[in-house]
Amino acid sequence: MELQELRRDLERLRERALADFAAAPDLAALDALDVAYLGKKGELTVVLRGIGALPPEDRPQVGAVVNAVRSAIEAALVERRAILGTAALESRLGSEAVDVTTPGRRPPRGSRHPIVETAREISRIFGQFGFVDYEGPEVEDDLTNFQLLNIPPDHPARDLWDTLYVDIEGYLLRTHTSPGQIRVMHAERPPIRALLPGRCFRYEAIDASHQTEFFQVEGLMIDEGTTLGDLRGLLDQFAAAMFGRDKRTRFRPGYYPFTEPSVAFDVECVVCGGVGCPACSRTGWMTILGAGMVHPVVLQSGGLDPERYQGFAFGMGVERISNLRHAVNDLRYYLEDDLRFLEQF
Ligand code: PHE
């Protein structure tokens, strides 16, 4: 009789457990039910412990029933846990959904430094006339920076360049890109059409128009029968392309030890159009470069016969050109790395 009762109780326990599991709304509730039925003090565990009090002949039968009920409950738990787990995952996926079609965050994009951009524009314009870019070293030897350019040691013309010397005897930071002329003459045979953009260095008191570091672009053309007229024609084309077709230009006499004759090349002031204003010191003109016919001594330095070859050279400050293009009035902006300035280009 008692056996029958126990059996019935266990069946009821099983049904109740299964109903409870089915009603558990989430995994936490299911875990609580797990403990309530199968834990150390769980309902089924208590029944199991009670078996010891039964007469020995009844124990196997009851044991079999308890085990069957236990298996059924455990299987139901596993099943319900899987269902609730999937539901929980799905709801999480739903709330944390990533829209893979959203455009990505744009990484900040840099821009070309105005000096580089201007130097490239200069190269592009002269490139249309067949000029090719070359490079020379920033640490140059005295021989190439001065002596081979017809500036002997102790010659007063050295005063034109306040030179920064380095700790190695006979070397300095190039004061201009003109030593590149010598290097190109040694590397190439005429006809030569070379452009030499690069950084130069001078010992200067820094202000709005003086820096210890600045950029130049050197030009060199060497061929048979090259004339000052060719130089003028080329520079006029350059000025027209860079500053506009309507701008007048002029040559003024100048002096450089490595050119003869030497000239300064002026363009009508881009600010006032030639009337005269503070930007052009009220002259109406702006000097944009120095130039001249390559001195015979320099041709010889480059291993060329001055009886056969003639050439012209010019050198311009890139900052100067950039100032005119972008209406910048202080050289110091170019080296300060201030993004508020640089982002404008
Ligand atoms: N090298 C000269 C300077 O730095 C510019 C120049 C170059 C002049 C070539 C004439 C010919 O001032």
Structural notes for this entry:
There is one protein chain. By secondary structure, the protein is α+β, with helices and mostly antiparallel strands. The protein folds into two domains: 2-95, no CATH class; 114-342, BirA Bifunctional Protein, domain 2. Helices cover 41% and strands 19% of the residues. It has helices at 2-23, 27-38, 43-50, 59-95, 114-127, 142-145, 179-187, 228-243, 296-301, 318-326, 339-342, and strands at residues 132-133, 139-141, 171-173, 192-201, 213-223, 249-256, 259-268, 285-294, 310-317. It has a seven-stranded mixed sheet with strand order 1-4-5-9-8-7-6, sandwiched between helices. Strands 2-3 form a two-stranded antiparallel ribbon. A hairpin with a 2-residue loop joins strand 6 (249-256) and strand 7. Helix 5 crosses helix 8 (228-243). The longest helix has 37 residues, at 59-95. The protein is rod-shaped and about 135 Å long. The protein starts with a helix and ends with a helix. The mean pLDDT is 92. The structure holds phenylalanine. Phenylalanine binds next to strand 8 and strand 9. Phenylalanine binds at residues 176, 178, 218, 256, 259, 290-292, 313-315.
